[in-house]
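QA checklist item 7 of 12: single-chain prediction sanity check.
[x] sequence parsed
[x] length recorded as 307
[x] structure emitted
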Amino acid sequence: MCCHPALAEAVQVALTLRCVCGLATAEIAAAFLVPEATMAKRLARARSKIRDTGIRLRMPAVPDLADRVSAVLRVVYLVFTEGHKASTGPALVRGELCDAALRLARGLAVLLPGEPEVTGLLALLLLTDARRPARIDSSGELVLLADQDRGQWDAAMISEGELLLVGALRAGRPGPYQLHAAIAACHSTSRAAAQTDWREIAALYGELLRYEPTPVVEANRAIAVAMSEGPAAGLVILDAVGCHPQLGRWPQLHLARADLLRRLGRAAEAAGAYQAALDLGPTAAERCFILRRVSELKRDSGCGPLP
């Protein structure tokens, strides 16, 4: 109902996240990589437009659903994203949001059973959430994907996700969520981190750029390229896309740069990138992870305090 076509899709998504899903304005701003004040103004303008133009928020008829599916899928995806890696608060994972997103995705799959992108989104969420038990260690600290105990991954969720993905791809109507799910499947089908097909992942991100030509997708492609062709190749792409003004607010960009710089032996620059991530106020679990990396960097560099 909130995804009314009279509103721009980005506004539909933000308004639904705030008014229906209950996410805080700061959390929505983090998802859109904009300042909280900017998002607050967007939401206020959306409410004013609804009031001033007399838009009626009512359940659309079945023929009108197709015009709203894209925005609804994005809402569910962003709810899950905030749950999978919280942008604020003490916890890295907000399980209640992950569970809510999965319920919504399953509901959409029942409502629109023949829509491959709906199926692709559900597959993506299952394949990603299957890793939840292994993402935090017993002390509450972040565990990187490469270091996770894959025996803790939920095999039933992975099997269901892979089956759904195959069914979606057979429809012959590819889309971004199917590609995201295919990337997640590359990880879930690898028995060990060293066996991950990073070339395939880089290629999938390249295809995803056709649907989502965003700096975030290009940054993720850079990481995949770094894993398949070496850190120098990935850093070239990452530094090029890092000029985008929005990415300066994205902690993952700085963490990725720091990792590549560390692998290239450029310790001082890596420390600066870690500091840039810290300056953005990450969650407690991420902050502990970053500080641990900085400590390791100081130790391994064999020099004094790094900037």
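[x] summary fact logged: The chain is about 65% helix and 0% strand.
[ ] second reviewer sign-off
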